[in-house]
Structure to design on (467 residues):
């Protein structure tokens, strides 16, 4: 539940509007500071004042409340250390805003004037850049270039008019390597002035981030450039990522931004989608085309739209290493290597030892091997038919006929109508399925990889993105 707090920093000092200081009396009238502790998706609040709009649903997050003052929408962000549950069983010590990473979504309307107070409770200075928004240069938030940095214990204020609707985000532009690697980011949605424009029935948003957290640890390694082991949506990994719930026939929009070090081909099963918006603005309908996978590059935002079809539909990054948790890069490939009684003999010396990979890696999801504290399995998540064998950037779009407007709670697993589900083939008459005809010299059905022969996979090197 969102909690307002009236207790602000006692040593906040003078605030500033751009580069102009304001009085202590003005600083004392800051908007209430709302915080959030739970990682559950919060129901989207209807606007409390100002122009009407359909609010977005922040996946495993929430929207920041505001107050109206002399016709200006006032928000209050606080940059601070936070503890974020990545999934049940693992938390990370990150930096974020208002108690969470990512910070709360800011929602406003095209034409609104906004005033955003930023209080710094970090151990170092910071700033905020309004990514994708057209603002005066002095409000752009680049530390050292357009403003002095916001020092620890200080409160600054940004004020500008929202000149265009679209899908945007906010993040620091001070010590970016550290602060963004620690989870400082948030979504900024500007709704059209006319609520009939770009109208959809359900509107979701989340940000993509990557962390390198050693098994058993809780703080990301901020100097990592490529070898990340946790790929997140709104600082959550599957099975901790909430489902995206819709009603059959709903027009659905999903907005996502990429603040990782690589691109992400986002793939939705069972639907064709079209890109309707980027961080550069809305895409005219005449310029859209159907896709099943939409790539989002580093620093980009994309919004996709589709008409929801009943079912449970996987939605994930199509880089296979990005749908796993806590991956290692030096794990050898053991396919076809018969361990025999070796595992049993090693287990006498090393309790809880398990041989892995000789038949593939799906055993990782089934064995539930012991893990260090505060560490997640590489693959996890149970579905109605067993382990889903996924992690990282994966969730499920759940579409049902009976979902009420404004409801986003999990409807459970989909019940497939008779005759619409794949099933095991059971022979009704022996010999009615002839054996396959193979080319001369082809490997027999029971062939295995010989890791000692040329071309065999004698050594593996796991990794992300080909490195």
């Amino acid at each position: 539940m969102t909690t307002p707090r009236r207790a602000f920093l006692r040593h906040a000092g003078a605030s500033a509007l751009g580069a102009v200081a304001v009085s202590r009396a003005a600083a004392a009238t800051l908007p209430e500071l709302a915080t959030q502790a739970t990682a559950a998706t919060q129901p989207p609040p209807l606007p409390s004042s100002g122009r009407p709009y359909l609010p977005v649903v922040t996946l495993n997050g929430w929207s920041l409340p505001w107050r109206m003052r002399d016709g200006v929408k006032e928000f209050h962000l606080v940059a601070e250390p936070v503890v974020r549950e990545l999934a049940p069983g693992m938390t990370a010590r990150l930096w974020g805003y208002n108690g969470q990473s990512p910070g709360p979504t800011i929602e406003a309307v095209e034409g609104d004037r906004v005033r955003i107070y930023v209080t710094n409770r970090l151990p170092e200075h910071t700033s905020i850049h309004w990514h994708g928004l057209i603002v005066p240069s002095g409000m752009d938030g680049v530390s050292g270039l357009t403003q002095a940095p916001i020092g620890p214990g200080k409160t600054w204020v940004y004020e500008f008019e929202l000149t265009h609707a679209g899908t945007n985000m906010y993040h620091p532009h001070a010590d970016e390597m550290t602060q963004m690697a620690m989870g400082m980011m948030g979504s900024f949605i500007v709704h059209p002035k006319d609520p009939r424009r770009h109208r959809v029935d359900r509107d979701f948003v989340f940000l993509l981030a990557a962390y390198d957290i050693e098994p058993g640890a809780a703080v990301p390694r901020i100097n990592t450039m490529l070898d990340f082991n946790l790929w997140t949506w709104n600082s959550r990994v599957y099975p901790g990522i909430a489902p995206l719930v819709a009603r059959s026939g709903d027009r659905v929009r999903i907005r996502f931004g990429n603040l990782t070090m690589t691109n992400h081909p986002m793939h939705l099963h069972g639907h064709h989608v079209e890109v309707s918006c980027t961080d550069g603005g809305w895409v005219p309908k005449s310029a859209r085309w159907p896709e099943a996978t939409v790539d989002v590059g580093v620093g980009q935002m994309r919004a996709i739209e589709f008409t929801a079809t009943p079912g449970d539909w996987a939605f994930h990054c199509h880089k296979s290493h990005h749908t796993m948790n806590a991956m290692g890069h030096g794990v050898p490939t053991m396919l076809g290597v018969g361990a025999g009684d070796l595992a049993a003999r090693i287990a006498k010396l090393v309790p809880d030892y398990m041989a892995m990979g000789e038949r593939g890696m799906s055993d990782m999801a089934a064995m539930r091997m012991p893990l260090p504290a505060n560490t997640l399995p590489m693959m996890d998540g149970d579905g109605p038919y067993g382990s889903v064998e996924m992690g990282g950037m994966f969730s499920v779009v759940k579409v049902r006929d009976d979902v009420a407007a404004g409801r986003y709670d999990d409807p459970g697993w989909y019940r497939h109508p008779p005759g619409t589900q794949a099933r095991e083939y059971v022979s009704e008459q022996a010999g009615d399925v002839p054996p396959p005809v193979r080319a001369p010299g082809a490997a027999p059905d029971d062939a295995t990889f010989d890791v000692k022969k040329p071309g065999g996979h004698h050594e593996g090197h796991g990794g992300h993105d080909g490195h």
Observations:
- Confidence is low (pLDDT under 50) at residues 5-23, 451-467.
- The CA atoms of residues 312 and 398 lie 5 Å apart.
- The first helix runs from residue 24 to 27.
